Amino acid sequence: MASSPHPKTLFHLVPTDSIAHDALLHPDNKRFVSMSSRRLPGLEVGFHVPSKAHGHVITRLGRNADLILRQSTPQNPMSAIHVVFAVNPATYQVMLSVRSKRPSSVELSILEEHGHDRKDVKEVKEVLTGDGVIVYGQNYSIKIASYRFRLFWRAVPSKEATNTCIQGAAYVDFFKALVIQGYQASQELVRDMRSRDRPTEFDVSEAQSWHITRLNTAKLPLFQDIEGLREYKAKGAFGQVFKAVDRSTGHLFAIKVVDLTIYQDGDIEAARALLHKEIKVMERVKHEHIIELLGHQRFDTLSPEIFMPLRDGSLSLLARSPSLRINHDQLSLMVLEQMFQALDYLANENLIHRDIKPDNILYSDLGDGRYLFQLADFGLAHHSSLAVTLCGTGYFQAPELWPQVSKVHAGQSHKLDIWSLFATIVAVHSAFPDFPPKTSDYSDVMGMLRDKA
């Protein structure tokens, strides 16, 4: 009879065919065979399995790996290290990473379980080929070359009640803490190794730029999130922003979910056209200080979604933040320099943003008092020759948009964005107590900005 699992076990690979069952009998695997949460023997996966630490790698499988899968045929060849279960150090998501030159030899599909004893099991949703996130607490069917397993997370007895196991959020939190603990311990062991023996480690800076690789690599699929892992981040005038996990890499990105029903004129198709224009502008522009478009979906619904890189927040939040690492003079100069570069680029492309404001400038904290700023939200952007409609956000609008008040009678040009950037800097420099004023009278707004000039 199989023994109880090692306390560092995350999940078991339970065989579903004779070839996979033979893996349990291999002499090198026997000490990692224990009883799974389904009362069936399986191979343990955890940081305790490797004979030496590999940093973010949890367990390797293949002909010459931590867990031995020796069956290899011309139709289904098995690599020395075919797959790796690893942790994404930036997000602590557990990943299935294919190391074989044949990504299609590895398939992953979600298991749906029914019945009191959960023995009624079926595969659901589409099959994911190649790399993928192993969601905490979610069980799977997995194919590795000729081998077929079911992946079951370990049962964790409850400390509060006998003969019961922890469930729900506490179950997920338990395993996430176990993964973080195992990863940190593995990192400590790696640091003690000679440099030539150290494994190639994941660079956490990839969390800022991983999407560029995906965009530039045509063979990789489009970004896909795991909807159950979305986290609410912020609410804007036209919808909500969520933090999402890319199902293939475990990295984070942002999803802007637009609610077309709250468009001010109630015209759904006009709102959809405005969103379509924003997408087209974002597809066109490529600049370090302009947020990238990673993709979009559900455009035919009332809640279209736009994919973007995840940033730390808006300039509005940063300017008010007690953890700001520089003073507001330095912040203002940094924003001014980077946004001038973005606006110069837009001017050369004959584009006017038309809604520059602190909420539409996103930032990433690069450390050591350095910040990356990127212009976002191009819903009001226009080609300079077409810009005629009223636009922008009151306090940050240029005088050209208020000719009866400002006595400035001029067409819309790139100067609109320069004025709005000036108003933005005025607000940021004082961390907002001085500006915007507590009035909607544009003559007061303009007078205050003139005093600051």
Automatic annotation (TrEMBL):
One of its GO terms (cellular component) is phagophore assembly site membrane. GO terms for biological process: autophagosome assembly; autophagy of mitochondrion; piecemeal microautophagy of the nucleus; protein transport; regulation of autophagy; response to starvation; reticulophagy. GO terms for molecular function: ATP binding; protein serine/threonine kinase activity. The keyword Membrane does not apply. It is a peripheral membrane protein. PROSITE patterns: PROTEIN_KINASE_DOM, PROTEIN_KINASE_ST. Its main location: membrane. InterPro entries: Atg1-like, Kinase-like_dom_sf, Prot_kinase_dom, Ser/Thr_kinase_AS. Its EC number is 2.7.11.1. Keywords: ATP-binding, Autophagy, Kinase, Nucleotide-binding, Protein transport, Serine/threonine-protein kinase, Transferase, Transport. Residues 227-453 form the Protein kinase domain. The keyword Transport applies. It comes from the Eukaryota. It catalyses: L-seryl-[protein] + ATP = O-phospho-L-seryl-[protein] + ADP + H(+); L-threonyl-[protein] + ATP = O-phospho-L-threonyl-[protein] + ADP + H(+). It is found in: Preautophagosomal structure membrane. This is non-specific serine/threonine protein kinase.
